[in-house]
Amino acid sequence: MWARVLLVVGALLIVASGGTLVGGHVLIARATSAIGQQNLLGDAGVGSGEAANVEGPVTMLLVGLDVRGDQHDDSVRSDTILIAHIPASHDQAYLVSIPRDTRVAIPDYPKTGFTGYSTKINAAFQGGYRGPGTESEKRARGVELLAMTVEQLTGIEFTGAAIIDFGGFEAVLRELGGVTLCVERRSQAIHLAKDENGKVVKAWYDEAAGKVRGIPAGGSLLYYEPGCQRMTPQLALEYSRLRKGTCCPNGDYDRQRHQQQLIKAIITEATSKGVLTDPGRLNRIVKAAGSALVLDTQGVPVANFLFTFKSLGAKDLVLVKTNAGKVNTVPGTTDERLSEESLQTFAAIRDKTLTTWLASHPELIAR
C-alpha cells in the first residue's frame, strides 16, 4: 500500500493508506519499528479499558524537551506542553497548548521523593525527572508527574503520550529539506545571526543585557521578514522558539502558535508529492522521526494508529488558542493562569465535546 506519512511531531507518526505501492507493507513495518515505544504515563494512564483500542476518541500528552548537549544535571524542564485530541469521528485532530508558565499545584511524587507545591507547570516534569535512573526512566517519570498535574488541573485522562526531543526534531526537518512558514511581522532571531558574508551562524542571547551575543566581527543581527517563505531547518526551528522582541507581543502565546504552525508545516511537507514519490527519502524521514520521539500508546499496537487515522491530513489539523492567545499573568508574578474560557476548552476535551464547543467559539481557532 502506498504510504502517506503524517507526522504530528511531538505526537504521532502515522502511516496511512492511499493507492498502491509494491513493498508498502515493508515500509509500514519499518515505520513502526523505527518509533521508540515506552510506557510514559505509568499510573497516570487511563487503564486497560478505554486505552486498549483507538476506536473512540484519543487524547495524547505531548512533551517537548530542549535539552542542551552539555546538560547533565536534573534541571530538565518541559519546554513545550501540548494536548492532541482526536474525537471519535476521527475526522479532525486538535492541538491545544498549555503555557509552560501556568501556575499549578503539582502533587507529591513519592517515586522521587518530590514534595508537591504550587509553581509553574514546567517544573512538574523536573520533579519526576530528578533522581537516579537511566535517561529513559527519568523522562518517563517526568511525563508521569506532568500528566498527573495536568489531570489534576483539567480532569483530562490521557490515552497516550509522546516525548519529542528537539535535537531529533531537527533531524526530521533536515530530511524534509526545510518547510514553508508564514511570518506575521518582522522578527529578530536571538540564537542565530549573520557573519560578514551573510552566512547564518549560531549566537546566544544574554538575558541580563537583553542582547544577542556572539555575532562575528562584521556580522549582523538576523531578521525574519513578513510573508510566506521557504525556511531551512535551522531557520524554521529558531522561528518556532522565539518568544521575545518584535516577533511576539504576546510572548509565549505567540511562540505556542508558531510551534503549532511548524507542526502543521511538517505534516504538509511530509505528505507532499515530492516526498511520497521518493521511497528512499520517505524511509529516511521515517527513521528520523523515530529518533525524534518516544511514543506511549498504552498497549495499542502502533499499526492500529496507522490505519485508524488513515484519513487525517494537514488540512484536518486544527490549532486552538489558549487564553485567546494573550498573556494572562497572575498579578505580582511571572506565572500565568488559565482563563475561564480556556478551562472550559479543557473541560470539553475531558467530556469529549470539543468539536461542539469550538463550533460555538470559533474565535478560539487559530487562523
UniProtKB/TrEMBL annotation:
Q: Which Pfam families match?
A: LytR_cpsA_psr
Cell envelope-related transcriptional attenuator domain mapped to chain residues = 77-270
Family the UniProt entry places it in: Belongs to the LytR/CpsA/Psr (LCP) family.
The name on file for this protein is LCP family protein
